[in-house]
Structures are given as C-alpha cells and as structure tokens.
Amino acid sequence: MLSLNVALAALVVLQASAAEMELLPAPTGPHKTGRMSFHWIDSARDELETRAPDDNRELMVHLFYPADPSASGPRAPHVPDADAMRGPWKAEQVERIMAMRAFSIEGAPLPPGKARYPVVVFAPGGGMKGLTYNVLLEDLASHGWVVAAIDPPFNARAVRFPDGRVLGNLPPAERGWPAPKNPAEMRRFYQERNAHWSRDISFVIDQLTALDRGDGPFAGRLDLERGVGALGHSRGGQAAGSVRLLDNRVRGGINIDGTAGENPVQPVKDEDTSGSQPFLWIQKTLPPPPTEEQLKRARRTRAEYDAEIQRMLATWSQKLGTITGGAMRVYVERRDIEHIDFSDEPFWDGNMTPEKLPGKLKTIADTRAWVRAFFDGTVRGQWADLKSLAGETRPDVTVQVFGKLWP
After folding, report:
1. Strand pairing partners for 62?
2. Segment (H or E) for 328
3. Counts for the chain of helices (H) and strands (E), in that order
4. For residues 150 and 204, is the Cβ–Cβ distance under 8 A?
5. Fewer CB atoms < 10 Å away: N or C end of the chain?
6. Contacts of 276 (CB under 8 A, 6+ apart)
7. In terms of Cα–Cα distance, which of 31, 37, 227 is closest to 141?
C-alpha cells in the first residue's frame, strides 16, 4: 500500500550540500530513469494556432523511462531551451534553471531484456513547458512507466526545435484564433484549442506505437495493448480529460487543477458528454470569495455569488456522475497552496522559504501518489492503492467517488 508519510519523507532529500544543491525533490521509485527527446510533425493536421495555410502541427516530446540500472552518463538539462525563456522567466531564474539537471540520464538505454512498460502522455499548463514538471514525470518513470511529455508550440513563450527554430508567442495578426469579442466566442475558442491539444495526445500515441513497432531503442518495449493514461495540468489537464472523448486507447484521464466553468471535462464534439473512461480531477483550494468592493463593482450580491458557487459545485457532481467508467474528485485544501505547486516552479522561482517548503513537498507527494495509484488501476488493473487512498480520512483532502470506479 502507498504511504504518503513515507513518500513525503523520501522527498526531503532536497538539498545535498552548498556545493551541489538539488532544488527538486528526487524520484521515489526503484528505477533509474532516462530521457530522450523527439521532434514529431503531424503532416495530416493543420496548425490551428497560426494563420499560415501550409503550417502543420509539430511538437517536441520528451520521453522519460526506466533506464538500465548500470547506465551512466550526464544527467539531462532540466530545461534545454531555458535561455529562450528570458522575459517570462526572470534573468536569475533562467540562470538557475540552466544550471539545474534532471535526475534522468540523457539517452540512457532501457533495462536489458524484453519487459514492456505502460505509457502515460502528459500535457502542460497554459504558458508552461513540458519539462517544468520533472518532479511529477520522473517520479512516474522511476516506478516503471514511460511518460511522454508534450511541449506544444505557441503555448510557452518559446519552444526550440532541433533545427534551431524557436516558436512562441505570435503577433495578433498572425494568430489562428483572434481576440474573442464576447463570452460566447471566448468559450468557443477555448474549446477549439482544447480539442487541438487533445488531438496532440492522440498523435503522440500514434508516434509511440510507431516507436514500439520500429527498430529503435523503444522497439517492443512499450505496453500499448492495455491502452495508455492521459495526464495534464491546468489547460493540459482539460485536454487530458477531453481526449477520452476522442480516443478509446486512453484508459483513464487525470486533470490536475484545470477548471473552466461548469465542465470538469470540456466537450470536443457536438454532444455534451463527460465520456466513459475513468477520470480523476485533482483540485486545489478554490479561489477566495470576492470582497465587498469587488462584488459592488460586479453589481452582484453576496447571496448571488454564493448561489452561483453552489450551482457550479452541483453541476460538477452531476457531470462527474455521468461518467460510466467512474470518476473521482480530490479536493486539496491546504494553506498557501497555489495552482503552480503541481509543477517544478515553486522550487526554482526564488520565493521558497523554510515555512513554505513542507506544504509544497506535501502537495508534490500527494499528487505523485494519486497519479500513480490512478494509472496503476486504470491502465495496469491494479486498484489496491487507489482504494486505499480513497479510504483515507485527512483534514486537508476531500475525496468524492462517482459511480463504480474499480471492480
């Protein structure tokens, strides 16, 4: 069974020495991990983020995986194109990140033998990069998973491709989606982008299938027969939930703190459905209620605001209850918890204090445990740890289970 206390204790290998400081919590699994990066172009799909008629969607994808225990070599750069992120990241942050190393060995061979490893595809949050979630993704790989982290162009300020091109923010005249003119248009554009990202996940599954059938290092090593897991944070979490509506190879989806109105799962087709494959929604503490001054400016009463929140919570529960494969909502209510705490950023943004550190480590430990337990159940068919977590009583975590999630 999983023990969050044991997991948390393992994370406190945070700082080694003044000479060589590990800013990120170390992976907790038994496997050494490797990392390889791929540039994949979807020649069958237009790039909807631009107005150029001949653009195809292209992605950088970083694979984390169990490595040969005897593997040696340099640890992979934490974020190889961090220098291109000057602007969104402060100069001191960029220097810190450029000096950091992942725990994974760049290009390490897989363990000898013919063992196949289950697969998860990850999508980052809006404005974030796939490799700024090492604390979560490397940990999953250290427990025997292959994790494909997508770096979608036109999301973060910069994504560098192997030929040296850097794709990032576009001027308004070149953007595929114009500035929305009203709330209805804003919802429509968001849902169109979400569908675009959902199809990224399906495309990556196609490419992983090709790797497994090819003659490279991953040939015959990816366990795709049982399907894959989809995982994402924020905007990427919405895509991880929605791809279940498009692709039955996805056996379960996890949305980490991605909220957009009344939909736990954003629709991607005409019909309004939350899908059939199991779904896990991890949420942090909801935003604080508005002040009296904010309500006055919005011309709303406190009673109207409270009623709207209650309607939204009821709608979430109703829609989660329609997922035939079962769903869970894990609500983490913790002092000082922030949306970005599910990523690496709190550990390198320069604002960490001794008082904040235990809470940040606890959020990472919790998230790692829930993610691994959910995919162990939905992809591997091993439900014991998820049942155990769902049955725990904790003051800072509320768990709701909808439908028949496990056998």
Report:
1. 37, 149
2. strand 327-332
3. 10, 14
4. yes
5. C
6. 244, 323, 324, 325
7. 31
Tell me the two tokens of residue 48: 């909807």
Instruction: Determine contact, residues 80/134, Cβ cutoff 8 Å.
Output: no
pLDDT digits (tens, 9 = 90+) for 257-287: 998 788 889 888 766 678 999 999 999 988 8
% the chain with pLDDT above 90: 77
What is the helix (H) or strand (E) element at residue 298, kind and residue range? Answer: helix 292-298
Distance CA 398, CA 110 (A): 38
Give burial (CB, 10 Å; 0-12/13-18/19+) of 282.
buried
- 41, 132 Cβ separation under 8 angstroms: no
Two tokens, residue 30: 């038994």
Q: What are phi and psi of 132, to 5 degrees?
A: -90, 25
pLDDT band at 374 (very low <50, low <70, confident <90, very high): very high
CA 186 – CA 189 distance, rounded (Å): 5
Q: Is the pTM of this model over 0.85?
A: yes
Type of residue at 215: D
Cα 192-194-198 angle, rounded to 5 deg: 115
- Residues in Cβ contact with 325 at an 8 Å cutoff, skipping those fewer than 6 apart: 252, 275, 276, 277, 278, 279, 403, 405
Residue 160: its H or E element: strand 158-160
Q: Are the C-beta atoms of residues 157 and 87 closer than 8 Å to each other? A: yes
Enumerate residues 6+ apart whose C-beta is below 8 A from 261. Answer: 187, 312
- 147-163 per-position pLDDT tens digit: 999 999 999 989 999 99
Q: Are 203 and 40 in contact (CB under 8 A)?
A: yes
Where residue 220 falls (left for φ over 0; alpha for ψ -120 to 50; beta otherwise) is left
